[in-house]
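input
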Amino acid sequence: MKAALLIPALLAFLAAFAAASSGDRQPMYKKCVGKCVVKGCDDPLPLVLQLTLWDCESNCRYSCMHKATAVTIRKHNTIHQYHGKWPFIRILGVQEPASALFSVLNGLAHWHGYLAVSRTQPRLPASGVLAVKAVRTKMAMKHLYATNAIICATGWIFSTLFHTRDLAITEKLDYFSAVCGLLFNAYIALYKVFDLASPGNRGKLVVVRMGCIAFYAAHLSYLSLWPFDYGYNMKAGITVGMISNIAWLYWCFTNLKQRAYCWKMIAFVVLVVCAMLLEVLDFPPYLWVFDAHSLWHAATVPLGYLLYSFFLDDLRFPEEQDGTEKRD
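output
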């Protein structure tokens, strides 16, 4: 789910923002942009650039960024970031082509997961008093897993838009959808840990559900009504993500003997943490296309399929009428 996958992405975006001034401060870059805006905007931009919402100023920044980069490489063997991003080669108007492509592939992974979950019939006891609880739990989890897939697929659509064109609106959509996914991930994990499908735990369900809603409403309000706080956004995302990961690991390790498929979620969490190293090892884009962030997105594509394999196994896990769980 995009929830766990996007923790390091939030960190990467903050780091990029903090380093944004290294290229912007160059006098030759500023001079180039100034001249371009005054003299280079007479002719209309190509249609593909207009469709991807490039305008005169942003196109001048792109052109001058690469001119300045060529100079700094030749003179100092150095590559700077500009406006928080490495100097990528634009392809068909797409600002970060590799990250955009891998975002699409991640979205497809979650869409495939949605289709698989929707078509899966949970394995339920044939009859008995305790079968009612099993039915309630299984159907609740199927609904949550399907909803998770929709939220994450939508989040990756916003990620694709953001990497296609870094605008204020696409940035916020990407950030807000990321935290939404993180929060829903935490909700599912807590739902499993506290058995919130049980009628006896309705009070806990209300507390967890209202807590998540209140947090997300406050989160959106703070970031929308005041200047965008990148530091807070990162800390909030990491905190929620860690809660969900810890809850998942707790549930998996306590159920591993009865549910052998729990290794998949454990592996998922561990591999996501390992993949975070790609964000730590930030470097200029190879071939002006593939940077560490794009490789992070590439690494999460197969992890999405691993995640839904766990979800499907969880739905198919047989439970006996007497309430005990059948060993695999």
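quick obs: The two ends are 25 Å apart (CA to CA).
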